[in-house]
Amino acid sequence: MIQVYIEKQKGEILGIVIVESGWGSILPTVIIANMMHGGPAEKSGKVNIGDQIMSINGTSLVGLPLSTCQSIIKGLKNQAQVKLNVVRCPPVTTVLIRRPDLRYQLGFSVQNGIICSLMRGGIAERGGVRVGHRIIEINGQSVVATPHEKIVHILSNAVGEIHMKTMPAAMYRLLTAQEQPVYI
């Protein structure tokens, strides 16, 4: 974990968008999903998209609901300096599922490329699959523009080592311009 200080004008927002890290992540906290161009966070060069925010000005954000974290950050508008404790995390999570043969259930369900449920103790959970993440790649093949049925087909027939890349769905929607970022 690293500690960073971001300087800003009093009354100026930090200029970040935060999303939940996704159920199944090591620490349930928020991650930076987007930064406002020219905003204090981006200008500082000290934080990156994907970073997990553990605490801000000494207040822990671990385990708090997204709306509470957003309120805490909004409440810092009149501060000239903000102290963040962050854990560097690439925005994309790499998952490795080991499936000896087709008799083994993958142990997760997908809806429109988004992982919506996970079987406790299953091979997917052991491989690092997270609920609320969007699958962006399976075995080196991008599935960003792939229809739901095809993603299900690829997964249901995959055996051996299944490599997947995923990212939080809220971050995916921002990056693919399906959602307008709301900076705080």
Secondary structure layout:
Layout: E1 2-7, E2 16-20, E3 30-35, H1 40-44, E4 52-56, E5 59-60, H2 66-74, E6 81-87, E7 93-99, E8 108-111, E9 114-118, H3 123-127, E10 133-138, E11 141-142, H4 148-156, E12 160-168, H5 169-175
Antiparallel strand pairs: 1-6, 2-3, 3-4, 4-5, 4-6, 7-12, 8-9, 10-11, 10-12
Describe the structure.
With 184 residues, the protein is an alpha+beta fold. The chain has five helices and twelve strands. It has helices at 40-44, 66-74, 123-127, 148-156, 169-175; strands at 2-7, 16-20, 30-35, 52-56, 59-60, 81-87, 93-99, 108-111, 114-118, 133-138, 141-142, 160-168. The strands form three sheets. Strands 1, 2, 3, 4, 5 and 6 form a six-stranded antiparallel beta sheet that branches. The longest helix is centred in the middle third of the chain and has 9 residues, at 66-74.
Features of this protein?
four-stranded antiparallel β-sheet, 184 residues, single chain, alpha+beta, 5 helices, 19% helix, six-stranded antiparallel β-sheet
Poorly predicted runs of 5 or more residues:
none
Percentage of residues in DSSP E strands: 25-35%
Count of DSSP strands: 12
Number of helices: 5
Indicate the overall shape: elongated
Gyration radius, rounded: 18 Å
Helical fraction: 10-25%
Distance between the termini: 23 Å
Mean pLDDT: 91
